[in-house]
Design a protein that fits this description.
With 89 residues, the chain is α+β, with helices and mostly antiparallel strands. The strands form three sheets. Strands 1, 2, 5 and 6 form a four-stranded antiparallel β-sheet that branches. It has one helix at residues 43-60, and strands spanning 12-19, 22-25, 27-29, 35-37, 39-40, 64-69, 76-77, 86-87. The protein has one domain. The chain has one helix and eight strands; from the N terminus they run E-E-E-E-E-H-E-E-E.
Length: 89
């Protein structure tokens, strides 16, 4: 029996828009009215979000860039049943 592959996030993709105040991650309203950021850890998710990014760009008249962040650095570890996080490093 082959053990399942454990996934690890080493890079994140984000759809980023720019306005007069600088850059920000684009988002959209989900079915329950919650804002969802347009980020993904793999190209399959990016491909799902791309049509939404195109529509946001068309409606807003703003350029949207797909940006890849690829330097991983753990900043904090939050354990279950713990009051606060533990800084890393």
């Amino acid at each position: 029996m082959v053990a399942p592959v454990k996934l690890k996030i080493d890079e994140i993709f984000a759809f980023v828009a720019e306005d007069d105040d600088g850059e920000g991650i684009t988002g959209f309203l989900g079915p329950d009215g919650t804002w969802l950021p347009m980020v993904g850890a793999d190209m399959a998710r990016v491909d799902q979000l791309r049509p939404i990014a195109r529509e946001i760009s068309r409606r807003s008249g703003k350029r949207i860039r797909l940006v890849k962040f690829s330097a991983r650095s753990e900043v904090e570890v939050i354990e279950p049943n713990e009051g606060g996080g533990q800084p890393c490093g």
